[in-house]
Design brief:
CATH architecture of the largest domain: 3-Layer(aba) Sandwich
Radius of gyration: 18 Å
CATH superfamily of the largest domain: HUPs
Low-confidence stretches: 43-53, 252-258
Number of strands: 10
Structural class: alpha/beta
Shape: globular
């Protein structure tokens, strides 16, 4: 995971996003690239985009870009990260002088190993669900979603929420560099939940063949929803990273009936690695 993209906009959890990006970069000697993020305007404005965004003047947009740049470069400077690094050392770069929209993150993100974003907040402020979904559905790359509270570590104890789906299998494959470095990997299977596919024991066996310290765990949901049980088990095992495929059910079905992805996006207190 040598190339990391961090879309930057001023919000309450941006420091946690930058902290998480730096934690990952420190493991792999990565290059972190930042850019100024804003919602796509005005075509088909999403319902969770505040009206104030749509009426920003050119000067206000320039000011926002400058504020985002200062956030990124100030953080990196305070952490001793150089803008021109050598191989296998953490380095950073700020991209452009303009405000980039969510759809741009979905396309530009395709050339990165990882996209780091904040966990979606309320509808009237960033981080926005629209940003997360653009990255998930358009980039083809894994995204790391960071909660408002800065993590002390990422990837020491990893939980995989295994449901046998193609989405989760893809996420696990993309997470192999992190899994290979973990001290403990828990493959969690919930009784009565998931797609037709290999069992958690079968995944665990293949991970172990790759030298990964994996163990399989099966739990019943009792009165919990899948999302609630996954987060409860992540807390019980003190996981500092949760790996889950995104939207195994359709987004429309999740919106109407609820789903594990929607619940986890709303309530997780641990960083989540997702792909679709």
């Amino acid at each position: 995971m040598k190339a990391i993209l961090v879309p930057v906009e001023p919000h309450a959890s941006i420091r946690s996003v930058l902290d998480a990006a730096l934690l990952i970069a420190g493991r792999f000697g990565s290059h972190i690239e930042g850019l100024a993020l804003g919602p796509d305007i005005p075509a088909s404005i999403a319902f969770d985009v505040p009206t104030s965004w749509a009426i920003l003047s050119e000067k206000e947009q320039r000011d926002l870009v400058e504020q985002s740049r200062q956030l990124f470069e100030g953080f990196m400077l305070s952490c001793g990260v150089q803008q021109a690094g050598v191989a296998d050392e953490v380095s950073c770069r700020w991209l452009g002088r303009q405000l980039f929209g969510d759809s741009y993150i979905g396309s530009f993100g395709r050339v990165f190993d990882l996209i780091v974003l904040g966990q979606p907040g309320s509808r009237d402020e960033p981080p926005r669900l629209a940003t997360v979904e653009a990255a998930l559905f358009e980039s083809g790359r894994p995204i790391l979603l960071v909660p408002p509270a800065a993590p002390a570590s990422i990837g020491e104890t990893i939980m995989i929420a295994w449901n046998g789906s193609t989405e989760t299998a893809r996420t696990v494959a993309l997470a192999m560099p992190l899994l290979a470095q973990a001290s403990q990997v828990i493959v969690l299977t919930l009784e009565g939940w998931g797609a037709d596919g290999p069992s958690g024991d079968e995944l665990t066996s293949r991970l172990q063949r790759n030298g990964i310290k994996a163990e399989a765990v099966t739990r019943s949901m009792n009165t919990h929803s899948p999302g609630e049980e996954i987060l409860e088990q992540a807390a019980a095992f003190h996981a500092d990273l949760l790996i889950k495929g995104a939207y195994t059910q359709s987004r429309l079905r999740q919106f109407i009936f609820g789903g594990a992805t929607s619940h986890i996006l709303a309530h997780a207190r641990v960083p989540i690695l997702m792909a679709h």
